[in-house]
Amino acid sequence: MRQFLTITAVCVGLAALTPAYAGDKVWISLGDAALAQLQKHRPAARAVASVKADAAQDASALSFAARPEGIHLVEVDEDALASLSHSIHEELRRCGGYMYHPTQEAGLASLKRHSTPAASQQLAAALVATRPSYTIDQQAVVTPILSQMQASNIGQTIVDLSANINRYYTSTSGVAASNWLKQKWTTLGGGRSDITVEQFTHSGWAQKSVIATIQGTDNGSEVIVMGAHLDSINQSGGSGETMRAPGADDDASGVASLTEVLRALVQANYKPRRTIKLMAYAAEEVGLRGSQEIANSFAAANTNVVGVLQLDMTNYKGAANDIYIFTDYTDSAQNTFLTNVIATYLPTLRVGTDRCGYACSDHASWNAKGFFASMPFESSFSADNPYIHSANDTYANMGSQADHALKFARMAAAYAVELGSDGPGTQPPTDKTENFSGSLTRGQSKSFGPFKVANGGSLAASTTGTGDMDLYVRKSAVPTTSNYSCKSDGSTATEGCSVNMTANGDVYVLVYGYSAGNYQLKVTYRPQ
């Protein structure tokens, strides 16, 4: 249960806010440092209401708990937002930094949720019954999935999305990017009846968010949300139609990481007990507008969201650690679970913590509604990608590779399966795992099977070892290097391959020594 500080209201009459410049008025909420940046550009900007944030929003910093951040509601000209975002990024080394609100009343309600004990305790009490157990026990399912995830797939999606002149939320190319991603995810769904892909239509702008849903089997009313933002922006200006904003890291990398998660879960024929929703949000760069509308709609419908993960920038390694988990405006218990997931499945990665301030990405929209949210990031916040929000945020400026983003995709897949496999009801059939090991000379191969796999099940094979081992899987007959149902032939001994079964049948596995070495083979399957 969260503990909150008493609200400190600093109300100023609306008549006292005399506009000093022309433009359409909008309401935004922002923290202390961001308000100071706004007032550099708009000295007349004054808070209509201010609160002290929940001290428990940052469990990692006792000094912060003693001096909670102020959050302020301000009415500004909409044309001030671009300079505000640019100033926050350049001066504070932060993204985002404010939340847009359609009305003053909506803004005041948001401030109340961030600070008032009664309101936040009610949110927390409503969620106590759905707090997951955070057990980690799905190694037989997760490990084969992670082994067959590929950085090259992520890289191609980054290239495809960043080929748009921009993905700005009001632009034609922003709409095209949404439509392209819907088709991409629909294709990856492979026609499975339990997977649907839809676009969420927003009020006030053209770009739609994209949502892919994998329906849970026997605990589908509990929902896991994994998100990234679809839009991009160039803070140097230009119209929505002409600005060059490839947004390769911010945030095509996050969308691409989720896309590889979806591909891998489908290839493994994974069917979660809880419902999993992958979301690509519109209009993040202009005040978290898309994710706010979605989070608000889920809260209004009393949707039982048990966990939220946000991937905003995953492919620029700017600091010593591999993954930084932000501790402010996130859920400390889920952050601990996420850290344990990384330690279990990606033990070579170094994990750090940092803070990103108020409203730095879309997880804040869910956190504001009381849902358990986490935000893992590509670097410490002060060492993030220097090219974002410019024409230079390109795949080439990330080395034309997606190795760093692959870490986040694997983390997200493990998170999804561990949470998605939990819940009440009858347990699904148990998978069987068999392990083999041996050595091969160059050009030598070894076959295994048949493995008798059940209708609706799958077989996943993975190898580790030394040298260069290739992996082949085939239904009904022993595979060869030219005849197979699935192959994995990278340049190391770490390979992964899986097949799905639409009827009971035999599956065979072949390990081929492209160069001499040793192998350890793991085969996991649903037996007949």
Characterization of the model:
The protein is an alpha+beta fold and 528 residues long. The chain has three domains: 111 residues, Alpha-Beta Plaits (2-Layer Sandwich), CATH 3.30.70; 290 residues, Zn peptidases (Aminopeptidase); 94 residues, Jelly Rolls (Sandwich). The chain is 30% helix and 25% strand. It contains 13 helices and 21 strands. Strands 5-6-8-7-9-12 form a six-stranded mixed β-sheet, with helices on both faces. A four-stranded antiparallel β-sheet has the order 2-3-1-4. Strand 10, helix 11 and strand 11 form a beta-alpha-beta unit. The two termini are 46 Å apart. The N terminus is likely disordered.
Provide key terms for this protein.
528 residues; alpha+beta; Alpha-Beta Plaits; Aminopeptidase; Jelly Rolls; 6-stranded mixed sheet; 4-stranded antiparallel sheet; 25% strand; disordered N terminus
Helical element count? 13
- Helices and strands: which structural class? alpha+beta
CATH class category of the largest domain: Alpha Beta
Distance between the termini: 46 Å
What would you give as the CATH superfamily of the largest domain? Zn peptidases
Architecture of the largest domain in CATH?
Answer: 3-Layer(aba) Sandwich
The global form is elongated
CATH topology tier name of the largest domain = Aminopeptidase
Name the poorly predicted regions: 1-22, 59-66, 117-122
The tally of strands reads 21
Mean pLDDT figure: 87
Secondary structure: helix percent: 25-40%
Beta-strand percent range: 25-35%
What's the gyration radius in Å? 24 Å
- Order of the strands making up the biggest sheet: 5-6-8-7-9-12
Oligomer: single chain
Number of domains: 3
Q: Please give the largest β-sheet.
A: 6 strands, mixed
